[in-house]
Amino acid sequence: MRAESGKPLSRPLGSPIVLSRWETLLFNPVHLAPRLPTQDGVVIQTGVTIGPRAKKPLHLEIPILITGMSYGGALGMKQKIALARAATMAGTATNSGEAPLIPEERQAAKYFIGQYNRGGWMNTPEQLRQLDAIEIQLGQGAQAAAPMGTASWQIDDPFRKHFRIPPGEDTVIHTRLPGVNRPADFVHLVRELRATYGVPVGLKTCATHYLERELDIALEGEIDFVVVDGAEGGTHGGPTILQDDVGLPTLIALARTVRHLERRGVKRDVSVIAAGGLTTPGHFLKAMAFGADAVYIGSIALVAMLHTQMNLATPFEPPVQAALYHGKFKEDFDIEQGAEHLAKFLKSCVEEMKLVAYALGKTDLNQISRDDLVCVDKELARVLGVDYAGYPREEQHLAWTDASRTWDGAPKVGAITQEGEAVATQTSGDAATPSELCSLTFVPQDRSKRNLIATALFADGAAAVLVGGDAAAPAQGNPAPHPAIVGRASVTWPNTLDVIGWDLTDDGLNVVFSPAIPELVRRNMPEFARGFLARFGLTPQDLRHILAHPGGAKVLDALQEALGVPPHALHDAAEILAEYGNVSAATVLFVLARRLNRPWPAGEPALVTALGPGFSGELVLLCG
Question: Is the per-residue pLDDT at 302 higher than 70?
C-alpha cells in the first residue's frame, strides 16, 4: 500500500498493539478482613467532580466521559448529536474534539467540554464562555502533536461553514497551539483561561516519557485536570506509525502521572482523566483504582452507539462508514436509537462497577484505590506500586529481595561515622560528609524570637556515610548491618519559599523558620510518603522504624501524626534531638548511625525522611 500511494497509511480506531496489561491486575474482594463486604441495599456513590478548586467545578453523575471526537474532522453531525444526548441521559459529559462549537451538539449536551485546540476553531471568547470545562489539546495518544488536516477537496459546504474556511483552503491542525511557543506561554494561557471563565481548565497530551516535566509546567499554571491519553488511544484515521510506535502505554503513563502528582502534594486538587484503549468496566475501575478520577471512552462508545446500526454498512463496508463524516451511510444513522444504546452501555458499565464496590466493602467508586488491587506479574507490580499476588500484604518487601537478605542490585550503606567513631569499614564506595556549623549564623545584636529559638535548636555537627556494593564489610567485632538503598524520592511543594531558609542581611544570616512547618508536614507528607511507599508494596504502618531528620519536637509530632505510626517508630530521631539538637543536614545520619548500631533483621525495611528549604521533602527506603 505504501508502494502504491507514496503517502502515510491511515487506520481508524487506533492501534491493534495493546501494551497496557490490565489483565494482570485483579481486585481484592473481602469477606471477613480487613472489613466485611458492603451490605446489599446500600447505595454506591458514582459521582465525580472534575477540577475541585475551579470557581465552577464540573460535577458529573458517573465517572465515564465521552472523549474528543470532532465534527467534520471525524464524525458526522448526527453522530455528534447522539453522543451528546447519550451523555446527557447518563449524567456525564461529552467533548467537542478539535472542532468549533457546534450549536446542535451543545444544545444536546447538559455537560460539555470543549477543546482549546491547535486548529484554533474553539479558541474564541464567544465559544469558550459556553463550555463547562476547557481542555487545552496539545496532542493525543493516537497522533501525538503531528500536523494533521483535511484537504480542500474533502470539505463540503456544511463543514466549511462551521469551520469558517475560505473556499479552496485546507484545514490545518498545527504541531503547536497558536501563541504557545515556549513553556511560559502555556502557563500564562492556563492562568488567563481560569481567571476569565472560572470553569476547570485541563491539559491533554500524548502520554510521553517526559510527562513529569510537562506536568510541572502545567502545575505552575495551576491546571485543574490532566488527561492521560495513552498510546492505545484511537482516532478516526491516522498514520499507523503514530498509532503503533509513539507514546507510553496508558497503564504505565497513568501510574506515573498519579505518582508525580502525589509527590508534588497536589493530587487532591488536580483531577486525572485516563484515556486510551479503555473498553470494559474492569478497565475503567482499575484506572480509577490507580488514581484516575474519571475515564474517557471513544472507540468503544462508537461501537455501543452504532450497535444494531452497524448493519447499515456491513457486510460490504466497514462499520465506521455509518459514523465518520465522510462515511457513505452517515445520513442513514438514527440519532435517538444510537443515543439510547450508548446510554444503556454507560449504565451497564456503572452497574458492574458498583458490584465490585460491594465486593470490596466500599460505598463510593472513588474509595477504590491501589490497595484494592494485586498484580500477578512481579515486575509490573513493582513498577505500578501495587501488591504482588505471590506474597501476603505483610511480606510484600520479600518480593524484591534475594534470599531474604538485600534488595536486588541495590547499593549498600556500608559505614557511618559519628563523633569520630567508625562503626564499620568499607573497601570501596562513595562517601558523603556533611559538616554543619550552625552556631556561626548567630547574630549577637539580633534579639528577635526567631534568632534565639534557632540558636537554642541548632547545633554544630558532622557525619560521614559510605555507600558501596557487596564489598562493604562490618568492622571487626561490630555487628552493624549493611542495609540496601532501595529507592528515593524528593519533592518541593509549591509556594513555600518562605518556610525554611536564610535571609542575607548586612548583619549576617537571619534564619527563616516558619511556625507553619508542623501543619505543612501534616498536610503534605501523607500523600508524598504513601505514594512513594506504594511503589514497593508498603504503607507507613508496615515500617517499624522512621529514621527522620528531627527538625524539632513539634515537627516530629506532626510527622508521627501524618504517617499514622506509633511514637516508638520515631524513637531514634527523638533521642538524637534530645542529645544533640538539630545539626542541620548531618542530623539524619546521626539517627541512621544509632539505628545501625542495633540488630537489623534481614529483609526489614525502614524509611529515612528529611525536610529542608524550599519547602522540600526527601525520602529514602532502606532494607536490611
Answer: yes
User: What one-character-per-residue DSSP string does 511-537 give?
Assistant: EEE-TTHHHHHHHHHHHHHHHHHHTTT
**Chain centre distance of CA 82:** 32
Give the mean model confidence (pLDDT) for residues 325-344.
91
Q: Which of 126-140, 174-188, 311-325 has the lowest mean pLDDT?
A: 311-325
Give the model's pLDDT for residue 590. 85
Pairing of strands 238-239, 508-513: unpaired
Query: Alpha carbon of 321 to those of 21, 74, 98, 126, 306: distances in Å?
Result: 31, 11, 20, 33, 11
**CA distance linking residue 274 with residue 292, whole number of Å:** 6
Given a cut of 80, whether residue 472 has pLDDT beyond it is: no
Distances (CA, A) of 89 to 29, 92, 93, 132, 485: 31, 8, 10, 17, 53
| 225, amino acid identity | F
Q: Which of 245, 10, 14, 275 is nearest to 148 (CA)?
A: 10
Task: List all residues 6 or more positions away from 289 whose beta carbon is below 8 Å from its beta carbon.
Answer: 27, 368, 369, 370, 372, 373
Alpha-carbon radius of gyration of the chain: 28
Only one residue has cell 530521631, namely: 573
pLDDT digits 0-9 by tens, 224-263:
999 999 999 888 777 888 888 889 999 999 999 998 888 7
Residue 370's nearest CA partner among 272, 281, 269, 285 is 285
Helices 77-90, 299-306: axis angle to 10 degrees equals: 90
Q: How would you class 162 by CB atoms within 10 Å of its CB: exposed for 0-12, middle for 13-18, buried for 19 or more?
A: middle
C-alpha cell at 335: 440519532
Give the list of residues 6+ apart from residue 475 with CB closer than 8 angstroms, or none.
422, 423, 424, 425
Of the candidate ranges 282-286, 468-472, 588-592, the one whose mean pLDDT is the lowest:
468-472
Helices 571-580 and 553-563, packing angle to 10 deg: 170
- Give 54-100 as a DSSP string: SSS-EEESSSEEE-B--BTTTB-HHHHHHHHHHHHHHT-EEE--SS-
Beta-carbon neighbour count of residue 434 at 10 Å?
A: 16
Q: Which residue has the higher pLDDT, 120 or 427?
A: 120
For residue 405, pLDDT beyond 80: no
Predicted structure pTM score: 0.70
Compute CA 174 distance to the chain's CA centroid, rounded to the nearest angstrom.
27
What kind and span of H or E run contains 563?
helix 553-563
Tell me the residue length of the chain. 624
